[in-house]
Automatic annotation (TrEMBL):
The keyword Oxidoreductase applies. It comes from the Bacteria. PANTHER family: MANNITOL DEHYDROGENASE 2-RELATED, MANNITOL DEHYDROGENASE DSF1-RELATED. SUPFAM superfamilies: 6-phosphogluconate dehydrogenase C-terminal domain-like (SSF48179), NAD(P)-binding Rossmann-fold domains (SSF51735). Belongs to the mannitol dehydrogenase family. UxuB subfamily. Residues 32-276 form the Mannitol dehydrogenase N-terminal domain. It comes from Pararhizobium polonicum. Keywords: Dioxygenase, NAD, Oxidoreductase. Gene3D superfamilies: N-(1-d-carboxylethyl)-l-norvaline Dehydrogenase, domain 2, NAD(P)-binding Rossmann-like Domain. It holds the Pfam family Mannitol_dh. GO terms for molecular function: dioxygenase activity; oxidoreductase activity, acting on the CH-OH group of donors, NAD or NADP as acceptor. This is Dioxygenase.
Amino acid sequence: MSPMMRLSSQTLPQLPETIEKPGYDRTKVTIGIVHLGIGAFHRAHQAVFTDDVLARDLSWGICGVSLRSAETRDALAPQDGLYTLKVQDGQGAHLRVIGSVVETLVAPENPQAVLARMSDPATRIVSLTVTEKGYCHNPATGALDENHPDVLHDLENPAAPKSAVGFLVEALARRRAAGVPAFTLLSCDNLPSNGHVLKRVVTRFAEMRDPGLAAFVADVASPSTMIDRIVPATTDADRTAIAAALGVEDAWPVVTEPFRQWVVEDDFPLGRPAWEAAGVVFVADVSAFETMKLRLLNGSHSTLAYLGFLAGAETVAEAMALPGMEELIEGLMREEVSPTLPSLAGFDLPAYRQALIDRFRNPALRHRTWQIAMDGSQKLPQRLLGTIRDRIAAGASHDRLVLGVAAWMRYARGIDEAGKPIDVRDPLAARIAVATQQLNDPEKIVAAFLGFAEVFGEDLRADAPFRGRLVDTLSRLLSDGSAAVLQAWRDRGGSR
Ligand code: CS2
């Protein structure tokens, strides 16, 4: 049998009728958006909303940039940027080829090509999904980490940067020098007030380079956004099933759920695609949506990922099926998180919470607990610790939130319940291992974790009742194991 043909502009017309294809002439698309961090999430979210409306204005094609590895470019370039989006749940699947990504670049291979694209006057938006740690900030304070190795590198080598921050500031410097107006910055990462966080780190970095540049950067539009779609890493089984359906091979399709949401502050001085026609909601202030999503969805996700992983659940759906988990997550959201949320007029919070439970139970997605467990030190502040602060200030219970934090500690220490090493991926993993792996006393382990001020801030470190609760909870996790702790939760009728 001859090897299978590859998905590309050439093979696109041969795909089965049932596969949805770009409804515009791709040869006429030009680049208006540079996206930093072209991973699966971007390709299942912003690139899809853009694909939906590209026919209205072909000048909003996307140049996708990888800041680290060449993998995505190597997969997509031979496919002319085309890839398949598979949307699935318990009911079935829908396949669609997305055409909005028309160029892919690999920053470490050719930083000049990336800077040239970002400085091009046709580029009017630079968006980002670089994950929490890509902001080179202190997660507890939101300020630029001025000692971050990439920050130090990019200050030394402004014309050949490594970090997203370094690329943005150099591209803005070039635009300023050439008299080209600044692009709009569009952070699409799971950070509270992501536009503000981004603006703050780039402005500080520019200030460290040149105060005149800082004044220019301080004026750049940087709307905040709330983004939501669950996108697990693509597996080989996904590739095989998608190739069988297409009749051609796709080296890097993306698999996701039906739900998608994008709430954006409408501040785009150089224009933007007509995303509202694809269901994007434009608002003046996104913060209430963002807090709600980070605390309810992502706070639950992290909690169930740590507890689930420790109890042997490989995927989110498996974790949800552990006795006690659903009760825990439901109670966490309803009793402990919801009272801390800013009010959103007309918004049906109970329905939103129920939809989250259903989304977590989606049996068609193999979303690994290990994937969500990554980078906990960068995620916990906005997912769980801010909520805990609000509950402490209100004198209200927060036992389930504390369980999530204790489960992170139990996980991040790097030893599983059978005594085997865990492959912990976190910028602080090595420091956490050194500080905690030799310890067995829960009190000492908690003290070592609370020593990380960039996670807990000075206030939570010093909060004795909080520390006491963590010690109690971690003791139970260490002695009884995660499954038994969850079971005990259920036996108590979901509350303690
Ligand atoms: C997840 C998120 O990996 C994680 O930490 O919690 O990626 C989550 O799936 C998305 O935020 C959903 O919108």
